[in-house]
Amino acid sequence: MNLLPVEDAITAILKRVPEPIAETVELAVAAGRVLLQPVIATHDQPPFNASAMDGYAMRAADVVDGHTLKLIGTSQAGAGFPGSVGEGEAVRIFTGAPVPAGADTVIMQEEAVADGGFVSFTVPARLGHSVRPLGNDFAKGQVLVEAGVRLAPMQLAVAAAANAATLQVAKRPCVSLLATGDELVLPGSVVGTDQIVASNSSGLRPLLIPYAETVIDHGIARDTRDELRSKLDEVFASQPDIVITTGGASVGDHDIVRDILLELGVTLDFWKINMRPGKPLMFGTRGKTLVFGLPGNPVSAMVTALVFIRPALRQWLGYPEPMLWRLPLAAPTPPNSARRHFMRAQLVHTPTGPELLPIPQTDSGHTSSLARADMLIVQPGGDPGQQAGAIVEALPLDYF
Ligand SMILES: Nc1nc2c(c(=O)[nH]1)N[C@H]1C(S)=C(S)[C@@H](COP(=O)(O)OP(=O)(O)OC[C@H]3O[C@@H](n4cnc5c(N)ncnc54)[C@H](O)[C@@H]3O)O[C@H]1N2
Ligand code: MOO
Hints:
Elements: H1 6-15, E1 22-26, E2 39-40, E3 50-51, E4 55-58, E5 69-75, E6 89-93, E7 105-108, E8 112-115, E9 118-121, E10 131-132, E11 143-145, H2 153-161, E12 166-170, E13 174-180, E14 184-185, E15 196-197, H3 200-208, E16 214-221, H4 225-237, E17 242-246, H5 257-263, E18 267-271, E19 275-276, E20 282-286, E21 289-294, H6 298-317, E22 325-328, E23 340-350, E24 353-358, H7 367-372, E25 375-379, E26 391-396
Parallel strand pairs: 5-6, 13-16, 13-17, 14-15, 17-21, 19-23
Antiparallel strand pairs: 1-12, 2-11, 3-10, 4-6, 4-7, 5-9, 8-9, 18-20, 20-21, 22-26, 23-24, 23-25, 25-26
Ligand LQZAQKY5 binds next to helix 6.
């Protein structure tokens, strides 16, 4: 049987992902979005020489032992001193206030003695001390946040400082999920004989939502051609950008997803990948809609979503694919078959740094081991197994 290498499958999927499209969003709702146009400063920051302390502004050269300076006014944040500081003069100043013309230094009030309109200092002046020069933070025209960055609180704060009320971010795709299987019942149901609680959509939705405008769960379709056809019709009618089915992807008599997708006009790019778990993954398109048929086994469904759908969503947003992590093994790995193995592993902290502890469980229906994992070790097909301490590549489960 011809199984497609993982890289070829990713390449085929990424070829179908459209170019990122920009949309304008207000700063208040931009957290977590991927920036498409850089944030560029439209002014210098600070926009004037600003005091970093509550104290006194003067010319450093005038601060001489035993001399007092004459206080000629006040500069406070939002209301600077309008005049100029001359020889022998000082201005009372507060943090964030403009340093008046003529002054070049600020001394904080704890190092000053003010008395009857005069001030003297208990320390020598250091030229420019406690003054934040104009443009010290950023200068007009400077790129403050590059395109392709996911907006976190720090980037939003600098965007606001640059006076940006809106940002150009990547439009997110709308995703639809459909579970298939006669045996499935929704979480919280009374579980009858031969029934299984559907868990795939409950894992996929939170996995995908950080990248998506919406992830709509269309529930469960029974394994009859009529029901699957009508459910999928309903899903396609809602015109999502991405449709994801789980289950019915293999070769059994009830595995009808592929047939029905083809009937409904989906052009399949591939079916079956040289990996485990996740072999029976299928992928195609229907017009502009990308269609992923994930295997039903819960570990296979989550792993294929991580390995194939997440990169597609990242590309959709113009967000670069991160490199795999390279970490030492905390315990040996067994030899692998010809299929690339995405091996569950825990990240353990040791006195010499983080290591990967393989979880000895390969069953693609074993959800509790996946729930204990932090990473998937990417074990090449035919790998003879590695000793503890060997450096291996791994894909983190919980990251953007
Ligand atoms: N003769 C062969 N049999 C199988 C092959 C094969 O190559 N030849 N491949 C195996 C592999 S690998 C996988 S993976 C599975 C995939 O099967 P399906 O995609 O057809 O999935 P189902 O049969 O519908 O379900 C498999 C398993 O997962 C449970 N399931 C399904 N959906 C859900 C859900 N939403 N939540 C929780 N659990 C779910 C289902 O009850 C089954 O236990 O095929 C192998 N067989
Ligand atoms: O690909 Mo299946 O997921 O190995 O069980």
